[in-house]
Amino acid sequence: MSKFGVRVEKEVALQARMLDLHIREEDLEEKFIRSSGPGGQNVNKTATCVYLKHRPTGIEVKVQQDRSQALNRFLARRILADRIEESLSGAGSAQERERERIKRQKQRRGRRTKKKLSTDAGAPGENNDGLSGKSSTPSRRNAVRPKQP
Which distant-in-sequence residues (6+ apart) come within 8 Å of 60 by Cβ? Predict the structure, then answer.
């Protein structure tokens, strides 16, 4: 039977990955904490939240995704392996790359908006008296209409 309440294949794959990353069970500090949030009485009365710390690197993980402590233990180890792999590879995490992509996108939108606003307002030095068009007479939309009797 599985140690973490998952399929044996998943558990074996996780153990192999941890072995490749030189993560030993002896290096892990594991604590069980009471969870909060959805899950009902089971979550409120039992310590299903898992806190995992890898002592050599100091990387910490806290998982309370599921009502089952065993499954949270598995998920915590998997997340810890992801974080250690990211720190070893030196490349940014997928979340970090996504944040950077969104940041660039927002900057691009901001530049576009500034450019649009500056062209709408006219270039500096031009007559910017609020009148639209090239003529000095107000446009039909902005024109004052005489009151009808």
Answer: 51, 52, 53, 54
SS3 92: coil
User: What is the Cα–Cα distance from 144 to 125, expressed in whole angstroms?
Assistant: 27
- Taking the alpha carbons at both ends of the chain, their separation in whole angstroms is 93
CA-closest candidate to residue 47, choices 61, 75, 67 = 67
Could you tell me which of 106, 98, 47 has the C-alpha nearest to residue 73?
47
Q: State whether residue 140 is helix, strand or coil.
A: coil
Q: pTM for this structure?
A: 0.62
Give the span between the Cα atoms of 143 and 78, in whole angstroms: 68
Q: Which two tokens stand for residue 33?
A: 């904490």
- What kind of fold does domain 8-89 have according to CATH? Double Stranded RNA Binding Domain (3.30.160)
Arithmetic mean of pLDDT, 72-97: 85
State how far the Cα of 67 lies from the Cα of 39, in Å rounded to an integer: 6
pLDDT higher than threshold 60 for residue 136 = no
28-33 and 59-63 strand pairing: unpaired
Taking the C-alpha atoms of residue 9 and residue 4, their distance in angstroms, rounded to an integer, is 12
